[in-house]
Amino acid sequence: MGARRDVGKDVAEKDAPFDFAAAYQELSLSMSRVHISRFEELPRIDLYLDQVLALVADELSFIPLEGEKLLTGSMVNNYVKQGLVPAPERKRYSPRHVAYLLFVCSLKRSLSIAQVADLLSVVDNAQVDLLRAYNDLVSAFEVAIAREFSDGPEGRGDPVPMRVYDVQGVEVDDGVSRLLTTGIRLLASKVYVDHVLELQSRRLG
User: Fold this and answer.
1) Is 114:78 a contact under the CB 8 Å cutoff?
2) Cβ atoms of 107 and 119 closer than 8 Å
3) Model confidence over 164-195: pLDDT tens digits?
4) Inter-axis angle of helices 130-150 and 95-107, to 10 degrees?
5) Predicted confidence (pLDDT) at residue 16 exceeds the cutoff of 80
6) pLDDT at position 158, please?
7) Cα(184)–Cα(110) distance, rounded to whole angstroms?
8) Could you tell me if 141 and 188 are in contact, meaning their C-beta atoms sit under 8 angstroms apart?
9) Which residues contact 22 (CB under 8 A, 6 or more apart)?
10) Which residues in 97-134 are b (16+ Cβ under 10 Å) and which e?
11) Which listed site, 27, 104, 122, 160, has its alpha carbon 20 to 30 Å from 183?
12) Beta bridge partners of 166
């Protein structure tokens, strides 16, 4: 004979108030484990558009979207036309394309597309070593997110300073580094606000 279900317990669990502290602790742990692929970890073979869309969505799955799509084929085409992303070669996208898309798709959560374009122009004008900068940006973003969530709902982490170098290995103007550092911090704060507001909404029912 099977075990009898405790109906009263089921009802109590269903009616139990939302445990914000426990949910936040779980969220904080999850955000401390965020990992975005470094350039050398991206697929070494060129990808078709549908593969790129899936890859970018997976890499940035920790960013709340509020029912929106992070990236679509139309968006990619628009970014190429606007000069935000290099044009694909024979309809295929290299790791360099993916890195650009990850940069654009993450920062557009806290900046306008026009501002992202301006930021890329600043980086390009400074002749920044993009591959090195990508890895440094990804690392700084992970640390910023972990710090943002580490001290409880009232806590905030300190900015993660970056050093950016040009293609000759010379450190670029400090203003560029500060701009990127602040952009990363702003994005981490946006991710924090979106996640915690969602938890607060669940608590309020």
Assistant:
1) no
2) yes
3) 898 898 998 878 999 999 999 999 999 999 99
4) 40
5) no
6) 56
7) 9
8) yes
9) none
10) bbbbbbbbbbbbbbbeeeebbebbebbeebebbbeebb
11) 27
12) 128
Measured at the CA of 204, the angle between CA 201 and CA 205, to 5 degrees, comes to 85
CB 200 within 8 A of CB 15: no
Spell out the domain ranges in the chain.
38-204
CA distance 192 to 52: 26
Provide the mean pLDDT of the chain: 89
- pTM for the structure as a whole: 0.86
What are the backbone angles phi and psi of residue 111, rounded to the nearest 5°? -125, 160
Instruction: Give residue-wise pLDDT tens across range 55-95.
Output: 999 999 999 988 889 999 999 999 999 999 999 999 999 99
Residue 197 makes CB contacts below 8 A (sequence gap 6+) with none
